[in-house]
Structures are given as structure tokens and as C-alpha cells.
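Input/output pair, single chain:
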Amino acid sequence: MADSEELNRQGRNIGLLIAGVAVGWVAANALGAALDWSQRTRAFFDLAAGAGFLMAFWMIYGLWRARQKNKD
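Output:
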């Protein structure tokens, strides 16, 4: 079983992942508008951000399961 400090560290890492994906997504949208990227290129970054958010959601689910297991 993971201890409380390890679970807290995982939670912080997930928060950093979410923040990093969000900042990267905003930056990609700003660059796409400034540099007049094609819609296909912008859509690629949208899909990449979506994948990052889905990965974070999956990690949150795993963290939740680990905390439920650690309750007992």
C-alpha cells in the first residue's frame, strides 16, 4: 500500500500535469492565431490537449482507488 505522503506527491504531480496541459493548450492556440497555422495543425494541438486531460483524469481515478484502498 502507498503511504499518505506518496499519495500526496501523486496528487501534486497530477495537478502539475493539468496545469501544464492547460498552459500548453493556451500557448498553442495563441501561436496558432499569431502564426496563422492551418486548422488541421490547431486541431492536432486540441486533440493532444484532450489526450493530456484524459490521461490526468485516468491518473485521478487511480489515485482515488489508491486512497480508497488506503482507508482501511
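The chain has a mean pLDDT of 94. The helical segments are 4-34, 39-71.
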